[in-house]
Amino acid sequence: MSTIGAYFRLSRVGWVLVREGVVSALPTQGMPPMLAFAKSLTRIFVKPRSIKESRAERLARAVSRLGPSYVKIGQFLATRPDVVGVDWSADLALLQDRMAFFPTAISKGQIETSLGRPIDDLYTSFGEPIAAASIAQVHPAEVAGKKVAVKVVRPGVRQRFANDIEGMYLVAHMQERFMRSSRRLRPVEVTRTLEQTTKLEMDLRLEAAALSEIGENTRDDPGFRVPNVDWERTGRDVITMEWIDGVKMSDVAALRAAGHDLDQLAETLIQSFLRHTLRDGFFHADMHPGNLFVDPKGIIVAVDMGIVGRLGKKERRFLAEILYGFITRDYMRVAQVHFEAGYVPSHHDIASFAQAIRAIGEPIHGQPAETISMARLLALLFEVTDLFEMETRPELIMLQKTMVVVEGVSRMLNPRFNMWKASEPVVGQWIRDNLGPKRIMTDLKDGMTAAVKLAEALPEIAAKTEKFHGQLLQMSEHGIRFDAQTAEAIGKAEARHTRSGRLALWVIAIALVAIAVMLA
């Protein structure tokens, strides 16, 4: 798609946000005077119905009007409170991923195209949809008398998202160019992460792989599992999995009526999440209560594995030490880990950073569990990252946000739930297993493996070094030369850039005139 189309689509997005009262609900504090004045003018165009609604309700209606892509974008930004702020992140987290059903005949066509077999050969029965989201919808079906859930990608959603993400890139580039303070948050990188995450989510084979991997990792874990995948009936546009008979964790009354131990469920949930994160480095990053069921045996079953997160060995080690430092109130060690990991620029004072960390950690220990606001703690954490010039780490932000969501679900089950007390057995055991003598042996083993690989690669490295040295000598004697084809390509690229700039200015002017006419 062209940049011109992106400008027009952004104009529509802006108009919808104005009409639904989202722009007028933005905080004025910190805005330049001209922007604050322009924001105040938008109140004139807000629908009367929206004026009486809360900010979350306005936002939900605006995003629904904009379509499935923006529902997904909003849900992604809900995982990035560092970008949109903690309050707006909470509002975005309330977005309901419920869309209109598309016809069953289209679902069947999608399945047959993806799997290359007639629907009657695949399923003994295939029912009407029971749930529909921005990317896919779910049908009940049967295979040889066994009930299964079939998830089918929404038709046309990939192209729709590709069009909408172009506008997001445009906004991100302008933000980095004109708002220097936002560069620390890396908006273009955030948009790239959104694009990659959603593309992966739209390929249901990858969701099936995630389910399979987490299933293997948690095979022997107490109180937690994921559905089994039917690989024969899974492809790019369809995934078939075990049907789960259970109660959603959002229905606390039904859980209590079924006789489940809510306190035990809360503890199992947070401990399972920490095991996946620390032990496996692979976790479900969308663990809201709608994606969590409790089966008749009292086992938590997690579904919808479209969004997952990964942490490397070093990141897991740093995370464990940071969590354990908070649990044991060793704030200096927490600060040291941040500096060792490179999360805080080295020119800052470690003692001052430890003091800031103490300001975050002490409320955890100084208040009753039911009065601790994890959202407030997250807000304090982001204020500290800004104060100490910490760059955004997408994998850690996703982890922090998921941890807040999981803690919120646990608190819903048990209002007096204390996440830090429940976390200690898992985190403490991981520390003892991985940061003691066992860690030294593991590091030695990894070091030996790396040394062997380096030795094997030495002849190739030597040959490439010799070749590079010869190229450097040639350049020093004759200079750098472009061939005719390269010079022509550079010239054409410059010409395209200049034309695009002129066209963009014309499109902006035309869009402003069109908006003025509509307002008149």
UniProtKB/TrEMBL annotation:
Signal peptide: none annotated. Pfam families: ABC1. Keywords: ATP-binding, Cell inner membrane, Cell membrane, Kinase, Membrane, Nucleotide-binding, Transferase, Transmembrane, Transmembrane helix, Ubiquinone biosynthesis. The keyword Transferase applies. Pathway: Cofactor biosynthesis; ubiquinone biosynthesis [regulation]. GO terms for molecular function: ATP binding; kinase activity. GO terms for biological process: ubiquinone biosynthetic process. Belongs to the protein kinase superfamily. ADCK protein kinase family. This is 2-polyprenylphenol 6-hydroxylase. It comes from Endobacterium cereale.
